[in-house]
Amino acid sequence: FLLLFDYFKVPASAQERVLKWGIFGAVVLRGLFIGLGAVALANFKPILLVFAGILLWSSGKLLLAGEEEEEDLSENSIVKLSSSMLDTTKEYDGDKFFTQVQEEGGSFVKKATPLLLVLTCIELSDIVFAVDS
Predict the structure, then answer these.
(1) In whole angstroms, what is the distance from residue 41 CA to residue 91 CA?
(2) Are 59 and 52 in contact, with CB atoms under 8 Å apart?
(3) Which residue in 77, 88, 91, 127 has the most C-beta neighbors within 10 A?
(4) Angle formed at CA 114 by CA 110 and CA 119, multiple of 5 degrees
């Protein structure tokens, strides 16, 4: 999350709110995935092979990875997916996830701030880690 805060230049005053919602989301997602995994194991024993395959694939990827370079987050698939899903403004509006923006015709439209984009990236990363673990 520190990389995301740095990449999106999240103001220090808004970081606590994103972290609070991120932790809440992580707890909910982990509970959901643990519950789904338990139901899958109880009802379908060969799912262990799928879980073992995921574990072997991620282990092999980690072992075969070369020297770690600093990743350009603009090329990160989670950041790209989040950016394509949300219509965001360029500016932050305090610690708000949504703000009102005036369009050319004079009407106001509710848009997401970059803070919601950061939270979405954090939650999608939580999903990836929950599936992996």
Answers:
(1) 46
(2) no
(3) 88
(4) 105
Pairing of β 98-102 and β 108-112: antiparallel
Helix axes 114-132, 47-64, angle to 10 degrees: 110
Nearest to 31 by CA among 126, 116, 119, 125: 126
Amino acid at 33: F
The string of pLDDT tens digits covering residues 103-113 is 888 889 999 99
pLDDT of residue 40: 82
Identify the segments of the chain with pLDDT beneath 70: 66-71, 132-133
Work out the angle between the directed axes of helices 47-64 and 12-43 (0-180°, nearest 10). 140
Give Dmax over CA atoms of the chain in angstroms.
59
Give pTM, 2 decimals.
0.75
Q: Is 76 helix (H, G, I), strand (E, B) or coil?
A: coil
Q: What is the spatial distance between Cα 7 and Cα 93, in angstroms, rounded to a whole number?
A: 17
Encoding tokens for residue 1? 């999350």
The one-letter amino acid at 3: L
Residue found under tokens 């106001």: 108
